[in-house]
Amino acid sequence: MASRRAGATLPSAAFLLLPLLLAMASAGLNGYFGTKSRYEEVNPHLVGDPLSLGPAAAGSRLPAACAPLQLRAVLRHGTRYPTAGQIRRLGELHARLLRRPAAAAAACPAAADLAAWQMWYEESLDGRLAPQGRRDMEHLARRLAARFPALFAARRRLELASSSKHRCLQSSAAFRRGLGPSLSLGSDEVEVEVNDSLMRFFDHCAKFVALVEENDTAMCQVNAFKEGPEMRKVLEKVASALCLPVEELNADLVQVAFLTCSYELAIKNVTSPWCSLFSEEDAKVLEYLNDLKQYWKRGYGYDINSRSSCILFQDIFQHLDKAVEESKSSKPISSPLIVQVGHAETLQPLLALMGFFKDDEPLKANNYVRQTHRKFRSGRIVPYAANLVFVLYHCDQVKTSKEEYQVQMLLNEKLMPFHHSNETISTYADLKDYYKDILENCHFKEECELPKVNITAIDEL
C-alpha cells in the first residue's frame, strides 16, 4: 500500500493537526450511529488501509485439504444520502435557526454556527448511493477476492442480484467494478438480476406490512421511549444549546440533527457542527432509540419480522445443496459466486431468524439502563456495506463422509461462531440439521398470509 502514498508532498504540521482535532471532536459519537454507521466502525483497520484484511482471527484455520466450492454473500448497499423525509425535517430545523434574530448569536454560538452551516442536501438525493458508497463496495469486492482467490479466479461465474432500489443497483455495479477487468468473470459485463422477492421480501409479506409496517401500535415501545425521561433530557439539552423553546423540538427533529452528524461523517468524512449538540451520553440514548425501532420492526420484536425472511434463508441453502450435489457428481460448480445486494432490512431479519444477537430480555422503552451491554446493537450488525457470507468447502482426507462438506459464515468479514457448536466451522450436515425446522417448515406464503379476521392486536404478532 506504500506505493499509493509515495511521492506525496509533506503537508504542514498545522494542516496535519486539523483533521485530527476534528476527528477527536466527534470520536465519542461515532460508535452510536446505529444503521447509519460507517463500515469502518466495525473494522477500524480499514481507516488506515481500505484494502487491509485485518488481523488474522484466532481459530479460523480450516482443516488441511479444504477447498472452497461456493461463496454466497448477502450485502447491504454502501453509504447513502439521507431520504427525502429526513432532508425535509433537517430543512425545517435549519429554517428555524435561520429565523432567529442576529442579535441572539452571541448568547447562542451553537445555533449561530448551525445557521451559518450550508444546507446542501436536496430532496432529489433521496437515499441514493453516495460516492463513498461506491468506494465501500469496490473495496469490499477487492477484499473478498483477496480472502477467497480461488473462487474469484478468472473465468469463474459471478451471479449478481439486487433490490430494485437505485442505491442497491449502483452498489452491485460498484462491487463488479471493484473486481476489475483482470478478473474476467464470465464476461466483461455481468448482468445484475433485480430480485425483490429475496432482497425486499418484507414488501411482499402481507402480514408484516399490515401488522407491523403500517400498524402504529406495533411501534409502541419506540413511541414510549421518545416521550420517556432519557429522551426528554436530550431534548431539553439540545433546545437549550439552540436557545429554542423545548416545545419547538421533538424526538424526530433531535434525531435528524444527530443523524446529520452521522451523514456528514459517512458521506464527506467531516465533523459536522451538528455533532457539537451531543455528548457521548446523548449519543447512547439516540442509538437506543434507533435500536428499538430496528428490534421491533426488523428484529426479535415480532416473529413475523424474521419469519418473513425464511424465503431468503431457504434459497441460500438450496444453492449450497446444489453445489454439494454437483461436487459429489464430479461436475463443475454452476454457481461458485452468488452476490446479492439488499438493505439493512434484508440482513437484520435473516440474522434474527438464525438466532444471532438475541438478548435475554427484550428491548423496551423502560429498560434502557439494563440494556447498556445488549447484543442487539444495529450499528455493529448492519452498518453501511454490511455483509453476511456463507462459504462452502469440500475437504479431502477426512475421517467421515459427513466431514467432507464444511461451512463457514462471516459477518462483516469476521467469522461467526455457529450456535450449535460455538465453533467457526461446521459440517454442512450439522448446520442443516440445526436449522431443519426453518428449512422444512417455514413457508413464506403461509407465514405471510393475513389472518382471515382482520386482527391487529399486538399479541397476534
> Helical amount among residues, as a percent range?
40-55%
Helix/strand/pairing category: alpha/beta
Number of helices: 20
State the end-to-end distance. 52 Å
The share of residues in extended strands comes to 5-15%
Parts with pLDDT < 50 across at least 5 consecutive residues: 1-19
Query: What gyration radius follows from the Cα positions, in whole Å?
Result: 24 Å
Q: What's the pLDDT, averaged over the residues?
A: 90
The total beta strand count reads 8
Features:
461 residues; alpha/beta; 8 strands; globular; disordered N terminus
Q: How does this structure look, described?
A:
It is a single chain. This protein has 461 residues and is of the alpha/beta class. It has helices spanning 2-5, 13-27, 45-48, 84-98, 109-116, 131-147, 166-179, 196-199, 206-213, 220-226, 229-241, 251-268, 280-297, 303-307, 310-328, 344-353, 378-381, 428-434, 436-441, 444-447; strands at residues 66-76, 158-162, 192-194, 337-342, 387-395, 405-411, 414-415, 426-427. Strands 1, 2, 3, 4, 5, 6, 7 and 8 form an 8-stranded mixed beta sheet that branches. Strand 2, helix 7 and strand 3 form a beta-alpha-beta unit. The protein starts with a helix and ends in a 14-residue tail after the last helix.
